[in-house]
Design a protein that fits this description.
This protein is α/β, with parallel strands linked by helices. It has 20 helices and eight strands. The strands form two sheets. The protein has a six-stranded parallel β-sheet with strand order 3-2-6-7-1-8. Strands 4-5 form a two-stranded parallel sheet. The chain has three domains: about 25-125 and about 215-325, P-loop containing nucleotide triphosphate hydrolases (Rossmann fold, 3-Layer(aba) Sandwich); about 135-200, no CATH class; about 370-455, no CATH class. The termini are far apart. Helix content is about 45%, strand content about 10%. Bound molecules: adenosine-5'-triphosphate (ATP).
Length: about 450
């Protein structure tokens, strides 16, 4: 087996982890508050930046990366920055490039999934896969599961495509495969036994198709590193600075991946000609890890995010430095006080108190309506008032807890001829509206509802 990677065993300067502040160009630090500045400049094995909403974490992360490049503490290829979305990765790359220009070329700024795809394509052979493996998206997964459930006729046991897909995803995010699950399953329970068989056939189907699903990308990379320490060592040697954004939303597999990547390189995996500083045992110290997050902003618990990853960071990395970013640059103090009061009752959180120098601002208005339509009418009236006072519609936003709540507001906005756009969810108006909105009236068949039903 041959392993190919970019040249990286020649650090710029000393590759160790200096603990004193580096000589960073002051222009890069311009405008930062003292905590942000410390978060950019701190050097050590592990750093947790607890960043409240709107506290400038993106500015800090990008400047931290830029400072590593500018001071030549790292080659671009030695930096791995992980974000949660491709959009965030592109934005971060652009912002780093604005700060250091072409010096950012060759740096890995990507999502967990993209980074794992790159690693797996290079090392696929070790996994018994062809490097041109296919990636199954959720539609491919659903199609295969639908076929398997039908073949096995297990829908009668309550196994649906979404429930099975969700359970398989959860297991993979916990790094459990078919064999691990088989050991813990209750074989006397027909539904459990059926699920195990579906999971088994699904895994075999993926392998026959030389395919991996989204969750496999991360789990298989972890398995690869654990099964082939020499492969893990390649990436441990390569990435000397690992930065992870939105750490509160990492699941167990993502957490395990970061743990593998930040392990020290064992002496037997250190090339004889390395110019990297070695530790007392002749190995290479683990990569420097920076994570940014906020337990109060965790939003992915439903898909396996484990808030303990951030809350227990200091246990996992005992030498970690913790820096709190509490100054908010987006909101007024009244809004922050309300937010602080709400998040104060979150469990498992790092204590912090958001503040601003922007002043108290307007008071918050609370309104309790009698119905969803009552609430929606209130919102629409407020929008009209603001608009008449000179505010542009595009500068206003309405937030919802669940997508289904858009329906009442959309109805009222349409009626009031207020232009709007739904972000992040399908518009409820694309659903068969009259049938869903007037089911009772349709049965009563007044002339108006008859027409509405006919139009649906
Ligand atoms: N030191 C600072 N002085 C003035 N403005 C700042 C400072 N730091 C950040 N900001 C501004 O605060 C806003 C939020 O910054 P940024 O987007 O980096 O924050 P964030 O923590 O990533 O936000 P969120 O997590 O809520 O998305 C931006 O408009 C940014 O320009």
């Amino acid at each position: 087996m041959t392993f190919l990677l970019d040249g990286f065993d020649s650090d710029p300067g000393d590759s160790g982890l200096p603990s004193s502040a580096p000589a960073v160009d002051e222009a890069l630090l311009a405008g930062l508050n003292p905590q942000q500045r410390e978060a950019v400049l701190y050097r050590g094995p592990a750093l947790l930046i607890v960043a409240g909403a709107g506290s400038g974490k993106t500015s800090v992360l990008t400047r931290r990366i830029a400072s590593l490049l500018q001071t030549r503490e790292a080659w671009p290829s030695q930096i791995l920055a992980i974000t949660f979305t491709n959009k965030a990765a592109n934005e971060m790359r652009e912002r780093v490039e604005q700060l250091v220009g072409g010096a950012a070329d060759g740096m890995w700024i990507s999502t967990f999934h993209s980074a794992c795809v790159r690693i797996l394509r290079r090392q696929a052979e070790a996994m018994g896969l062809k490097s041109a493996f296919t990636i199954y998206d959720s539609a491919d997964t659903r199609a295969m599961l639908k076929r398997i459930i039908k073949e096995l006729e297990v829908d009668t046991l309550g196994l649906t495509v979404p429930s099975v897909a969700g359970k398989i995803s959860k297991l993979k995010n916990e790094l459990a495969d078919v064999d691990t699950y088989a050991r813990q399953v209750n074989a006397d329970d027909p539904a459990d036994a059926a699920f195990l068989e579906v999971f088994r056939r699904y895994s075999e189907g993926l392998r026959r198709a030389n395919a991996l699903d989204f969750d496999d990308l991360i789990a298989e990379t972890v398995h690869l590193f654990r099964a082939f320490p020499e492969v893990a060592a390649l990436y441990q040697r390569r990435f000397r600075h690992i930065l992870v954004d939105e750490y509160q939303d990492t699941n167990h597999a993502q957490y395990a991946l970061i743990r593998e990547l930040t392990r020290p390189v064992e002496p037997q995996h250190v090339p004889a000609d390395t110019r990297t500083r070695l530790d007392a045992n002749g190995g290479i110290p683990g990569a420097s890890l920076t994570v940014v997050g906020d337990s109060d902003q965790s939003i992915y618990a439903f898909r396996g995010a484990d808030i303990r990853n951030i809350v227990e960071f200091e246990r996992d990395y005992p030498e970690a430095q913790v820096i709190l970013l509490e100054q908010n640059y987006r909101s007024t103090q009244n809004i922050l006080d309300a937010a602080n009061a709400v998040i104060a009752s979150n469990f498992d959180r790092q204590e912090k108190n958001l503040f601003t120098t922007a002043g108290a601002g307007d008071k918050i208005t609370g309104f309790t309506g009698y119905s969803a339509y009552d609430e929606a009418q209130f919102v629409a009236d407020e929008i009209q008032k603001l608009h008449e006072a000179g505010a542009a519609y595009k500068d206003m936003a309405v937030f919802f807890r669940v997508n289904s709540q858009t329906r009442a507001l959309e109805d009222i906005l349409i009626r009031s001829a207020i232009p709007y756009r739904i972000a992040g969810a399908p518009s409820s108006t694309s659903a068969p509206r009259s049938r869903m909105r007037w089911p009772t009236s349709c049965r009563s068949r007044t002339p108006l509802t008859t027409w509405l039903c006919a139009a649906s």
